[in-house]
Amino acid sequence: MNKTLKAILTVLALCLLFVAQRYFFSSPDSLTPSSSLSKEEKDPSTSSLQGKTLSLPLCEGRGSTILVEHEGFTLLFDTRTMCPLWVAWELTADETRGRVTRQGVDFKADESVPEQYQVEMWDYNGGQYGRGHMCPAGDMKWSKEAMQDCHYMTNICPQNAELNKVWWEHLERACRQWARQDGAVQIVCGPVFSDNPKRFGKKHKVAVPKGFYKVVLSLKEGREKALGFYYTNDDAPQPMEDAVRSVDDIEQLTGIDFFSSLPDELENRLEAMTDLRAWD
């Protein structure tokens, strides 16, 4: 083989090597860690919000739902009821000291869901139920964006006015106090419906819940605890101590698995608790 042919073959080999490297390491279909592990290894039971790790509820066989993430909270919207199935967030001690107000903030349709499910604030006009926040504005005072986002109608349910302004509000204030004393709490709440709920709405027919649940988790080291609550959607007096349930009770009521990312032994122990005094 003469020198000229050798040189030509060498150049061709180098070109083939360069092309192979470009294909295997730059192709969008190549299985490099940056293109595969981020999707495959993500835990579906958790969500990351502002650097927090939030244990999301698990629901089986709910094909009519849409997962929505907003500033400070995550929710699962149910297109059958036009209400969230659950809303989940972590509230820290620092966040309870926020100074953002509701002034100038209106309820609004949520463009995160398809147009036919975008409930409007005026859908509630003329009805006997008010617009009840699931993730409350009082928990979102730490951020202007979070305050605005919690007024999306995907975070709202038809709620009796007396329940909203008195008994549900008492629980919301208690959760903020627990966040201050323990450093942080994780909260999940949502509606409970009858088999054939009443509906109302100017354009979108929103189902009226028969009640509401809330579960609260504190992972303060050495004082880990959890508690559930259930309130009927009416104007009956409902002091907090009468609304107490275990998280296990709420799971049985709703068919939702809460705090599933916890180690099983810890989850089982905390979800059986019913002692409100443990939160003093």
| Widest sheet: strand ordering | 3-4-5-8-11-12-13
Overall pLDDT level: 86
- Give the C-alpha Rg: 25 Å
Largest sheet: 7 strands, antiparallel
How far apart are the termini? Answer: 91 Å
Total number of strands: 13
Query: What is the succession of H and E elements?
Result: HHEEEEEEHEHEEEEEHEHH
Q: Which class do the helix and strand fractions yield?
A: alpha+beta
How much of the sequence lies in strands comes to: 15-25%
In DSSP terms, counting alpha (H) and pi (I) runs of 4 or more, how many helices? 7
Describe the structure.
The protein contains 7 helices and 13 strands. The protein has a 7-stranded antiparallel sheet, sandwiched between helices. Strands 1-2 form a two-stranded antiparallel sheet. The N and C termini lie far apart (91 Å). A hairpin with a 6-residue loop joins strand 11 and strand 12 (225-232). The chain has 280 residues and is α+β, with helices and mostly antiparallel strands. The chain has helices at residues 3-26, 33-40, 144-149, 161-182, 240-243, 247-254, 264-271, and strands at residues 46-49, 52-55, 65-70, 73-78, 83-92, 130-133, 156-159, 184-192, 199-200, 206-207, 211-218, 225-232, 244-245.
Features:
7 helices; 280 residues; seven-stranded antiparallel beta sheet; alpha+beta; globular
